[in-house]
Amino acid sequence: MSFSKWIGAGLGWSFGGPIGAIIGLVLGSIIDSVSDSGTPLLGDWQTKQKNQPTYRRQAQPQTQPGDFEVSLLILASVVIKADGHQDQRELDFVRQQFVNMYGQERANKAFKLFKGINQQQIPVRQVCMQIQQMMDHASRLQLLHFLFGIAKADGMVTDPEVNQIHTISGYMGISSRDFESIKAMFYDSSDNAYKILEITKEATTDEIKAAYRKMAKKYHPDRVIHLGEAHQKGAVEKFRQVQEAYEKLQKERRF
C-alpha cells in the first residue's frame, strides 16, 4: 500500500481545519511521487480531501484511529520541542510506541509523517481546538497520557514540558482534575495514589471506594475500543495505574 493510501484510508475529520493543512503540507513535501498503481502519491489523498466536508460543518463523529494517530503525531512534535531541544530518546520513544502499536512497516510510515510534521511550526491552540471539537473525551485523555509518556522518555519530565502539556490539555477542554490525575501516573510521590483517583488525603474510606469506581469507569479500556486494539494498550496501562492506586490506599487504610 502506498503512503498516500495508508494515510488517506485512516483519516476523517482531520482533512479540514489546521490539522488538514498541516498534513497537506507534509504530504506535499514527501518525495515519493509514484504509488503502487503508478499514479501520483498524493492523488488518493487529494481526492478524499475534496470530497470531505470541513470539520467545522460536521457534527461530532466517533473518533477514528487515523484521526487519533495524526493528532498524536502533531502534539508529540509540540511536546518534544517544548524544552528547546529534541532528545533522541524521546524520538526513539515515539518510534517504538508506533512499532508496538502497529508493527514495523506501518510504524515506519507513521514516523516518516512525524518527521515532516516536526519540521513545521504548529499552531497549537488551533490544532487543540479542532481536537476538542471533534474528538471524544476518552480519546483526548488517551492523547494526554501518551504525551506524558513522551516527556518522560528521557528519564524526567521537565517544567517546560509539563507547562506545554498543561497548555495543550486546557486547549483540548480537559479539566485540571483529569490533567493532575494523568500527570500523577508519571511521578513517584506519597500522595500520587490520591491524585490519580482525584481525591485528597482527607477522603474517607467510602469516598475512596466511590472515587475508584468513578475512575475505573472513566479509564476503562472499552472507552477507547473504537480506536482499535493498538490504542487499547495505552488505555490498559491507565486502568492498571488506577487499580494500583486503589490497592495502595487499601493497604495504607487497611480496608
Automatic annotation (TrEMBL):
SUPFAM superfamilies xrefs: Chaperone J-domain, TerB-like
InterPro entries associated with the record: DjlA_DnaK_co-chaperone, DjlA_N, DnaJ_domain, J_dom_sf, TerB-like
Regions annotated as coiled coil: none
Record keyword Membrane present: yes
Top-rank taxon, per record: Bacteria
One matching Pfam family: DnaJ
Record flagged with keyword Transmembrane: yes
Residues annotated as transmembrane: 6-27
Boundaries of every J domain copy: 192-254
UniProt xrefs under PANTHER family: CO-CHAPERONE PROTEIN DJLA
Protein name: Molecular chaperone DjiA
